[in-house]
Structures are given as C-alpha cells and as structure tokens.
Amino acid sequence: MELNNVRMELDEKLEVKIREINSKLTAVNLPMMLAEPGTMPEGSRVRMKPPQFDGKTSWTNYIRQFEAAAKANGWLPEEKATALTLALRGDATDILQTLSPNEQEDYEALVKHLELRYGQTHLEHVYHSQLKNRCQKSNETLQEFEADIARLVRLAYPATPTTVMERLAVQAFLDGLRDNETRQALILARPSQLVDALARALEFEAAKQSCRSQSRIRRVEEEKKEEPRIIEAIRRVLKENLPEKKEIRCWRCGKLGHIQSRCRGSQVAPTSFRKINRAEEKDVYIRRTTIVDDHWQSAEVQQDQERDPDLKLIIDWKKNDRKPTWQEVAQYSPNVKSYWA
C-alpha cells in the first residue's frame, strides 16, 4: 500500500512538471510564430548563410538560392540588399562601382543591375535561334538530346506557362530527331510532355532494333538457301560465255599436251603437220636454218627459204662463198643483218 501511495504521488508531481514545461514552451513559441518577418528577436532567428556569387555561375540559379535563404532568415528588403552586396565576389563586385549608395541599399535596383549583366533575359532571341536549329547529332543519344532541348526551352521561354513550355519542347524534340521512322511514331503517339516523348522514342528504338536483328537472321538464312543456286547460275554463265580452251600441240614432235620449249623428245614433226602450220613455223625454220645443205634440207623448206627476199640474199652469199663487209650488210633490212650476224 505504501509503495502504491508513493508511486501515485510521484506521477502527480511528474504531470505537474510536464504541464509547466508545456506552458513555458507555448509562451516562448507563440510570439515567434505570430511575428512579422524582420521583427523576431535576434537570438530566435534560424540563420541561413547565403551563397556567394562571382559572376561565373548561373545567375538564375543563384538568385533562387539567395531568395530561399532570405526567406528562411526573415530578412527585410534592406537586409536582403546588404546580404547580397556582401555575397558578391570576384568580377561581380565591379558592379558596385556603377551604383550609387541609394541603389546599393535598394534590393530591387541591385537585383535589376545584376540581372542585366549576368542574367539571360536579354539572350532569349539567341536561345530561340539555337532551339529552332537544334538537331540530334550522329553520335548523340536520345537522352542527351532531350536534356539539351529541355534546357534551351527553359532559357528561350522563361516566363511561359508549364503546359505551353512542354508543348514547345515536344515539338522541338520531334523536329530535331535524326530518325524519320522514330519521328513518325511519335507524331502518331501524340505525347503531351517531353518526358513521355523520350520514353516513347526509346521504346520505339528498342523495338526497331529487335526487329532489325530478327530480319538480319532471316536474311542470312535465306542467303544460305539461295547460295547453291547462285553458284550454279554463275558456273552456267561462265561456261556459256568463256571461250573454249584450245589444245596445245608441240611444233617439234607434233604431240598434244606441251609446247616446243618444253619438249623432251627428239622426233621431228611429220610433214603433214608442218604443212598445216607452215605459216606459223616459217620464222622458226628460218631462224634454225643458216647453212644451205641439200643433203639434209627438204625441197619444200628450200623453196620457202628462196621465196623469202632476206633469206634468199643470205643463201646467194653462201652459195657464191661471198663474205660481204659489215658496211655492205648495214644497207639491208634488220632481218638480213640479224641473219648474217
């Protein structure tokens, strides 16, 4: 019983303490919640340090961060102007030389001058031109192209409503696509947002790649089936158009299968064969015959030699045992000089 009484007393005291603490917290937080910006006690503010600006980063992104910090700190316009002036670094501080003291204390005037120098509002016509002429590059993916289109649309139409901006982005994305089939598929799909257009384009590219692989496999299989027919057709055409191969006959022995320079036999071709090829062998017999001897020369060969004007001259010199000088031989044809030499 005593333990229960002690426990109850402790619980009552604990509840009283909790109520006192809650009442004190309420008394402290209520003025802070109801206070206007810039009127809160100095020690009760949540201090957010604004970022620094050196003129090399994006002014649009910076001013958004600065406004967020100013709102969290509850700054008045004069305090915002002071904080923005202190946040300037590097080349950005040069703008202070062009401002009067009153303009430096005026937050709107300070932001206006910084916007004019580092902002992108005056470059909208440049971004309009870039967006109009933007096309997908040969080595550029759909994701990279979509990201750049979104960037240019935001820069070219900063004050445009979101729905209108999405339509402009989708149209620019369609106009700049490199593949005509993908563009046609997206036109039929009618995407309302740029993200949807990118998703549809990726799906279509994947499907097209899959179909292309299957068609390539079918084409290879068909080519394998047609290969024997093509080879047979080529052979037939070559057989019909190529000239027939002539038989090789030796002028020396008269046999087929080899030529005279590779003949290993000593047999002389028969007379009938020599008559058939007399026109072709005439020069050969002339070169082989340099001495006239009736004992081993046939009558037909001797007659052929005497009909040749150059060779007849050589034969006459041989018969008459005449040895003309080289000055005399030089007057005749090259054949005579060749035979006599």
UniProtKB/TrEMBL annotation:
<keyword id="KW-0175">Coiled coil</keyword>
<dbReference type="GO" id="GO:0008270">
    <property type="term" value="F:zinc ion binding"/>
</dbReference>
<protein>
    <recommendedName>
        <fullName>CCHC-type domain-containing protein</fullName>
    </recommendedName>
</protein>
<dbReference type="GO" id="GO:0003676">
    <property type="term" value="F:nucleic acid binding"/>
</dbReference>
<feature type="coiled-coil region">
    <location>
        <begin position="128"/>
        <end position="155"/>
    </location>
</feature>
<dbReference type="InterPro" id="IPR036875">
    <property type="entry name" value="Znf_CCHC_sf"/>
</dbReference>
